[in-house]
Amino acid sequence: MEAHDAAGKILRENHTLLVRISDVLIERETLSGEEFELLIAGKELPPLQKSPTLAPPPDSEAKNPAGGEIPKPELGTPPFKQPNPWEIPS
To answer: Is the pTM of this model over 0.85?
Structure first.
């Protein structure tokens, strides 16, 4: 029971820090080693930098690298016919 008691004591003593780390992880999703060390030292983290978006702007049309337009699927239909496992071949 000593290990269990020691673990509980460590968690209680570091509760505020653990809550701070979890809040930052919810906001940022990841932390570098340097950012983690700043949190442990009680310092503020640098502001989050916005990463570039990977999606094209909404007003741009999709381009086909082979040339021509990329066909748009009709709404409500799958892009391909899925095989029916219960269908009896004719």
So the answer is: no
